[in-house]
Amino acid sequence: MLKRLLDIFLTLCGIVVLLPLITITYLLVKLSSAGPALYWSQRVGRENQLFLMPKFRSMRIGTPQIATHLMNQQADPDAYLTPVGSFIRKTSLDELPQLWSVLKGDMSIVGPRPALFNQDDLISLRTENNVHTLKPGITGWAQINGRDEIPIPAKVTLDAYYLAHQSLWLDFKIILLTILKVLRRDNITH
Hints:
By secondary structure, the chain is mainly α. The protein has one domain. The protein contains 8 helices and 5 strands, in the order αββαααββαβααα. It has helices at residues 2-32, 68-74, 85-90, 98-104, 120-128, 141-144, 152-165, 168-184, and strands at 38-44, 50-56, 108-110, 115-116, 137-139. The strands form 2 sheets. The chain has a 3-stranded antiparallel β-sheet. It has a two-stranded parallel ribbon with strand order 3-5. The longest helix is centred in the first third of the chain and has 31 residues, at 2-32. The termini are far apart.
């Protein structure tokens, strides 16, 4: 209950502070490429329930919905990026609409990143390790320890560590380290 109240408080504060940045990002995406500025990605939430998560669109219309690490193996991801896509991904501005998912209760500020609906390997490993019992987050322990650069088993191990050690103190630590990593652009591929 305390975590949910903190999520709502931090999200409302974040929306107020970030509203100019959200507006500018919306306009950059809308004016730089055809299609909507937002897209709704089908993600796996708590107890493996599907939900729709909004993001600013960084990829062109028609890009396959696959995980970044898989796209890096199949094709040049830069070919799919919109003119501002690389910038908004490297600065994590594409993630700002997820504040809506936190307010709605589908996500938390801190938790394991929500898997795409088709990431069967990640979903299966998280279920085996009871990570699926957690509400997904905008940021998490795995994100500050490697993000997309770490293999799925290692990511799940980090998610399981968070499950076993979750606390408000750890959440604050993750939030602060996330801010530092975003500002330094650490572990961001595209």
